[in-house]
Amino acid sequence: MKAGLTSNLFALDALAACGLAPGGDVFYQSVVEEECTGNGALACLARGYTANAALIPEPFAEQLVLAQLGVIWFQVHLKGLPTHVAYAGTGSNAIEAAIPLIQALHEMEHRWNAAGHRPADYAHMDHALNLNVGRIEGGDWTSSVPAWCVFDVRMGLFPGQSIDAAKSEIEQVILKAAQGNAFLRDSLPQIVYHGFHAEGYALSQDGSARAADAISALDRAHHDITGDTLTRTAITATTDARFFGLYADTPALVYGPRAEAIHGFNERVDLDSLRRVTKATAMFITDWCGTQEV
């Protein structure tokens, strides 16, 4: 994301170097916390910063994002019955009890990805929604049957999919799976929602003239710099675009440089791609806002 911030900043710098300024107001936002809740962008909107369009430089390979998923984070807290490992059969292992619950959640994941459940933007994807058990901890000592376990889950949602309905099904799946454990059926898991509680967003569903004009302006800018037509894509992640598009009546265009190994070892961005995006962003601002000499 630092690469995207750089492209936005130096696009404005490039205009200044040409003796030009945007003909309208351009708000440059650098916000904290895009990876867990998105509350940084939400705070900017709450303070009254609105616009006719937003350009978010997420690194999705110089493509325009037409749709993005929603995301729910939740924790599952399990209790067990501790005892010395020599008498393990008389206890209940909270860590091992998590395994069938995780399996049941993955079965739910496959149901949600079924062809009949996919909106048009994701019809071509067999597995757009990913469930990830990203963290697990439990127990107190190697020779004791663990009395507790907590695992953290991230689950994707399609645009238009109800968060409340999704949460209800998640809870039903977990509680039903818990019935297969003699201890858990009388000491049910606790489900805690934390972090992301995000709806999906589809720019493709914005039929407004402003959305069409903004997309056309970015298409022209991209073509002027690269010589290619701007590719449209649906992504299997989420971005801050949802706040602008869903809650602020602001078409949100996600367009940024090419990245590799995101959230992995040697995470990086292609510098030539970054330069192209910077130029295209400057051209977009020029087209969208007009310019004036300074």
Q: Could you say how many structural domains there are in total? A: 2
Tally the beta strands: 13
Q: What is the CATH class of the largest domain?
A: Alpha Beta
State the low-pLDDT regions, or none.
Answer: none
CATH topology of the largest domain: Aminopeptidase
For the largest sheet, list the strands in their spatial order: 5-6-4-7
Q: CATH superfamily name of the largest domain?
A: Zn peptidases
What is the terminal separation in angstroms? 30 Å
Helical stretch tally? 7
What is the typical, i.e. mean, pLDDT?
96
- Summing up helix and strand content along with how strands pair, one would put the structural category as alpha+beta
Tell me what you see in this structure.
Helix 1 (2-17) crosses helix 7 (271-289), helix 3 packs across helix 4 (163-178) and helix 5 (209-226) crosses helix 7 (271-289). A hairpin with a 7-residue loop joins strand 11 (259-260) and strand 12. The protein has 7 helices and 13 strands. Helix content is 35%, strand content 21%. Strands 5-6-4-7 form a 4-stranded antiparallel sheet, with helices on one face. The chain has a 3-stranded mixed sheet with strand order 8-3-9, with helices on one face. It has a two-stranded antiparallel sheet with strand order 1-13. It has 294 residues and is of the alpha+beta class. It has helices at residues 2-17, 39-46, 94-112, 163-178, 209-226, 241-247, 271-289; strands at residues 20-22, 54-56, 64-68, 70-79, 131-138, 148-157, 190-198, 201-202, 232-234, 252-254, 259-260, 268-269, 291-293. The chain folds into 2 domains: 2-68 and 202-293, Zn peptidases (Aminopeptidase); 70-198, Alpha-Beta Plaits (2-Layer Sandwich), CATH 3.30.70.
